[in-house]
């Protein structure tokens, strides 16, 4: 069968990936019209999307209301639509009557749509019957992990694989809540808190990265538990109980190991750690910012059909919430500005993993090597977006429908927002003033469509923006906000540190160290540019020497194109002094000039992991060994 390449790209946080179309023409926006600020349009001239000096004023600003969506009666309209509430309930009913689970319902760690074969999806048209609806389930029961495929048409289990151990499924809320309670019934922990003079009522305990460190942990689901003081502040991340860490068995909910080496490290003070705007008694020393207004008097230009199909300008794509990836884009197509034909760009795009290794060897820190998507879920940790602050006035909000650990559905409201962005940027311009009577001033505003989600994974908030432009470009941005994962220190200032070279990060406040760490975001991109027959091209920029007497120039650059023949050819480590461009092309589709259609993949910022390849965190995240990787599978690739 045909093999279809699928591209993985690893990028560092706070960077963006740009997909640039090589062959499509510019698609014009409609001519802007400014409303009359008197009479009928007076309200539109009043700022609704503002930057205020007081949060209260912002929250009182009028918001364009979107009626909450009743998901209880929803039915799927597209082969890739997520499981509905009714379907999740049916899966639960099927599993409840399934013989292996008839006496005790398993703990659900993942319950998602088992997506149809790619060929079926590509061949489907609106109005056609949907392919069979199936659910992919990962469940735990009696210390064993179960991977099941459930058919919703026949109300039966199609396949069932059992792992003799529990494996490493995504942490459930039961896991996190249960493990966070274990310390309070452990005598050594209570004794340590008493010795520190810390009240148990002021404590909150969290489950940092589970990690994996060798065969002693093989076959066990373990997690470390760390505690913080909430006394005097909601920003408990700045008040760690340093040096105290517990290893908890998640299946037995008991302490396997207790380590308490930080008695000499004070708990950092709570003063000036509360980040909430409303409680600040002193405003920042800065000039005030006047209100900013971004209005759409005629409403937004995009529309959402059947709950998940987005249409805007020359773009059309399917968007859904996913408990692991957060945002999943499918069947992205752009309309050719000359022929009006919808042309395929990408079959599916999503964030596949978020690797965050910390660089501290202490007993209470070495294991912190988060896999935020696989361990906690970017979708499960995406809390409701805040209107006007997270998303502008005319944003459209989309909910996530997921399954809890008991198999029952729940709604993650306002998890995604869609909006049009105009920030005064220029889409394209050119001017001429060389000759008398020959003057050109041509400029076009840049208006884009943005799909946004913010995942609050513990102390960090990750803002994911997928931005679609009318020139066919897709820009993926990841912003980083939230709090540092702080380490307690016995030192109040750098003058007290005897050997600064031994520190694992800078002192960011009294008794607080900000430990050095990385953020690696990996994106899964299944490109379908003008069809599925795509190739990965390394366009290497090579320095050439001019021949004697050929030119006054001594050297120049030449682009040498190499089409990847194997997966190894498409494993790329970026090098500053060996520059390349990277294209995905369809060699069977040509422009009128004979050039293959394609996209250029532009990493706006990348990073390489410096960890040893046999270091346990790097073994689990070996995909970060390369900035670009491409794989092929038999049949149609994911």
Would you give an account of this structure?
A hairpin with a 5-residue loop joins β30 and β31. This protein is mainly β and 638 residues long. It has seven helices and 32 strands. 8% of the residues lie in helices and 38% in strands. The strands form six sheets. A ten-stranded antiparallel beta sheet has the order 17-18-21-22-23-2-31-30-28-29. The protein has helices at residues 55-60, 85-96, 118-123, 173-181, 187-196, 372-376, 616-620; strands at residues 4-12, 16-21, 107-113, 134-141, 144-151, 156-163, 203-206, 222-229, 244-249, 254-260, 303-305, 309-312, 315-322, 326-335, 342-357, 369-371, 396-403, 409-421, 426-435, 438-445, 448-457, 460-468, 474-482, 486-488, 507-509, 512-514, 520-527, 535-545, 555-563, 580-590, 596-603, 628-633.
């Amino acid at each position: 069968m045909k093999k279809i390449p699928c591209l993985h790209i690893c990028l560092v946080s706070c960077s963006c990936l740009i997909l640039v179309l090589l062959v499509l023409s510019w698609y014009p926006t409609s001519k802007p019209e400014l409303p009359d600020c008197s009479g009928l349009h007076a309200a539109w001239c009043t700022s609704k999307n503002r930057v205020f000096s007081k949060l209260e004023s912002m929250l009182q600003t009028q918001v364009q209301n979107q009626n909450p969506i009743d998901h209880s009666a929803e039915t799927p309209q597209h082969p890739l639509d997520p499981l509905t509430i009714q379907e999740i309930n049916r899966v639960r009913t099927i599993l409840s009557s399934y013989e292996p689970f008839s006496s005790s319902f398993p703990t659900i760690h993942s319950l998602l749509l088992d997506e149809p074969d790619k060929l079926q999806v590509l061949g489907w048209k609106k109005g056609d019957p949907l392919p069979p609806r199936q659910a992919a389930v990962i469940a735990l029961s009696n210390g064993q992990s179960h991977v099941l495929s459930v058919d919703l048409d026949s109300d039966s289990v199609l396949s069932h694989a059992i792992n003799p151990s529990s494996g490493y499924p995504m942490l459930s809320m039961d896991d996190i809540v249960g493990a966070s309670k274990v310390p309070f019934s452990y005598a050594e922990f209570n004794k340590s808190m008493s010795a520190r003079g810390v009240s148990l009522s002021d404590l909150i305990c969290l489950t940092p990265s589970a990690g994996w460190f060798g065969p002693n942990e093989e076959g066990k689901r373990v997690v470390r538990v760390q505690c913080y003081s909430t006394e005097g502040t909601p920003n408990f991340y700045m008040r760690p109980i340093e040096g105290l860490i517990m290893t908890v068995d998640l299946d037995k909910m008991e302490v396997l190991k207790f380590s308490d080496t930080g008695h000499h490290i004070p708990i950092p003070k709570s003063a000036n750690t509360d980040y909430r705007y409303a409680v600040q008694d002193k405003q920042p020393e800065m000039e005030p910012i006047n209100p900013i207004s971004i209005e759409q008097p005629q409403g937004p230009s995009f529309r959402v059909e059947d709950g998940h199909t987005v249409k805007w300008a020359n773009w059309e794509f399917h968007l859904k919430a996913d408990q692991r990836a957060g945002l999943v884009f499918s069947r992205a197509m752009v309309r050719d500005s000359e022929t009006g034909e919808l042309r395929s760009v990408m079959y599916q795009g999503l964030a596949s993993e978020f690797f965050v290794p910390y660089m501290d060897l202490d007993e209470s820190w070495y294991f912190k090597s988060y896999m935020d998507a696989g361990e906690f879920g970017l979708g499960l940790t995406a809390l409701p977006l805040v209107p006007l602050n997270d998303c502008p006035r005319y944003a459209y909000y989309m909910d996530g429908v997921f399954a809890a650990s008991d198999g029952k559905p729940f709604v993650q409201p306002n998890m995604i927002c869609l909006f049009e962005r105009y920030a005064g940027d220029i889409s394209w311009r050119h001017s001429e003033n060389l000759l008398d009577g020959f003057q050109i001033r041509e400029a076009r505003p840049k208006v884009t469509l943005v799909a946004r989600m913010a995942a609050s994974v513990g102390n960090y908030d990750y803002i994911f923006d997928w931005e679609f432009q009318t020139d066919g470009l897709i820009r993926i941005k990841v912003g980083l906000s939230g709090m540092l994962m702080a380490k307690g220190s016995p030192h109040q200032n750098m003058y007290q540190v005897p050997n600064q070279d031994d520190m694992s990060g800078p002192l960011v406040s009294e008794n607080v160290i900000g430990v050095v760490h990385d953020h690696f975001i990996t994106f899964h991109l299944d490109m379908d540019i003008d069809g599925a027959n795509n190739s990965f091209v390394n366009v290497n920029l090579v320095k050439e020497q001019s021949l004697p007497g050929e030119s006054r120039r001594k050297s120049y650059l030449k682009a040498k194109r190499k089409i990847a023949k194997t997966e190894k050819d498409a494993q790329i480590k970026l090098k500053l002094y060996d520059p390349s461009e990277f294209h995905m092309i369809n060699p069977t589709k040509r422009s009128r000039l004979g050039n293959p259609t394609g996209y250029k993949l532009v990493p706006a910022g990348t990073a390489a992991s410096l960890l040893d390849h046999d270091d346990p965190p790097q073994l689990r995240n070996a995909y970060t060994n390369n900035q670009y990787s491409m794989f092929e599978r038999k049949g149609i690739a994911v």
